[in-house]
Amino acid sequence: MADTLDTLPAGRWAAIRAVTHSQRQRLLELGFIPGTIVRAVQISPLGDPVAYEVLDAVIALRRCDARCVHITVL
């Protein structure tokens, strides 16, 4: 089973492998580009959304969107 961004624990780093989503272009524009390193920064107390550090920015994504970003955990 492939790892996706929504499964990345807070504080862990990963490399983005692919983005598959109807909002793919929006995610790419936010910096979720294959080959980019990303880190889960903070998980909301309710579990959604999750803040991710990518390209020197912190971006909050809903888990349903993060599930479409395929990663390799570092």
Which regions have little confidence, pLDDT < 50, spanning 5+ residues? none
Number of strands: 5
Number of distinct helices: 2
Give the radius of gyration.
11 Å
- Mean pLDDT metric: 92
Structural class: mainly beta
Describe it for me?
- The protein is mainly beta.
- Helices cover 14% and strands 39% of the residues.
- It has a five-stranded antiparallel sheet.
- Strand 3 and strand 4 form a beta hairpin.
- It is globular, with a radius of gyration of 11 Å.
- The model has no long low-confidence stretch (mean pLDDT 92).
Name its key features.
74 residues; mainly beta; five-stranded antiparallel β-sheet; 5 strands; 39% strand
Topology summary:
Elements: E1 13-19, H1 24-29, E2 37-43, E3 50-54, E4 57-61, H2 63-66, E5 69-73
Antiparallel strand pairs: 1-2, 1-5, 2-3, 3-4
